[in-house]
Amino acid sequence: MRKKIAIIGVPMDFGQLLRGVDMGPAAVRYTGLVPKLRTLGHTVEDLGDIRIPVRDCEADICSDGRILTPDKHRYVNEITRVCESIYTVGKKAINKNQFPLFIGGDHSIAVGTVSAVTDPAPSGLIWIDAHADFNTPDTSPSGNIHGMPLAGLIGEGHESLVNIGRPGAKILPENVVLIGQRDIDPEERARLKQHGMTVFTMRDIDEQGISAIANKTLMKFVHLKRIHLTLDMDALDPVEAPGVGTPVPGGITYREAHLLMETLADSGKLASMDLVEINPILDEANKTAKLAVELTLSALGKSIL
């Protein structure tokens, strides 16, 4: 199905200490995302980048070069402002019947993207990531907000992030499926069980196969008309996607990722998407950005035959 796609760049790296993911949108565009989407028959409008405040490096590093200790309030005001902007731009795209394709940036942008796409109606949320991103300021070992966005979306965590766009939770736990997790903090694990979240870890993928996982995910959302996909590139095995800030061995393979995207495309329910955590500084010849573009094309209808 041909779509009207709105590309929204979010070159933000406030959610973590490691620099570089702010260059992710440029790397993806450089790889030829727009012309490749048009080749599939889609109409594409590149809305440019959300304006991001200048990051004060002195807030991260001491004068002697030491990284500062975890701070659960680090950059929360800046992230809130950016996510409010994401919400405004994303909601406009939805109202114009466009498919918003958000390109980050770190995963904290999802607070704004999911808030926007769930504004008109409930949506299923597929969270593909090596991590669960379900910490709160009280449970996070690092204080980095890119490990907290999913918690914020169900209404827990920093008050300003919980209330992006409109007050309160943006999605119900039963409308979320996590896929590809293999690095979950102990308190985060307890929180996932407490909220009854559906999580398909790498062990589940190994045991059941990605096709079964994809079909179970779609069955979970049979009552919903729309699905939002948020794809953190560290969900992929580092051999396939080396350009990420928090790589974890033993991830999703190249073909598993493509089959998952192709299955979502076949469902006809995919209505919006995030690409996040692409760090060109750590990449090898733009390999991770190229893979991100390939997976996006598969999610938007590219097939082998």
User: Secondary-structure element order, as H and E?
Assistant: EHHEHEHEHHEHEHHEHEH
What global shape is seen? Answer: globular
Helical coverage, percent range: 25-40%
Average the pLDDT over all residues and give the rounded result. Answer: 94
Can you tell me the CATH architecture? 3-Layer(aba) Sandwich
Quickly count the domains. Answer: 1
> Largest beta sheet: what is the strand line-up?
2-1-3-8-7-4-5-6
Q: Compute the separation of the termini in Å.
A: 15 Å
CATH fold name: Arginase, Chain A
Name the poorly predicted regions. none
CATH class: Alpha Beta
Q: How would you characterize the largest beta sheet?
A: 8 strands, parallel
Number of strands: 8
* Category from helices, strands and their pairing: alpha/beta
Oligomer: single chain
The fourth-level CATH homologous superfamily is Ureohydrolase domain
Strand content: 15-25%
Give the helix/strand layout.
Elements: E1 4-10, H1 24-30, H2 33-39, E2 43-49, H3 76-95, E3 99-104, H4 110-117, E4 124-128, H5 149-153, H6 159-162, E5 176-181, H7 186-194, E6 198-201, H8 202-208, H9 210-220, E7 227-232, H10 254-267, E8 270-276, H11 287-299
Parallel strand pairs: 1-2, 1-3, 3-8, 4-5, 4-7, 5-6, 7-8
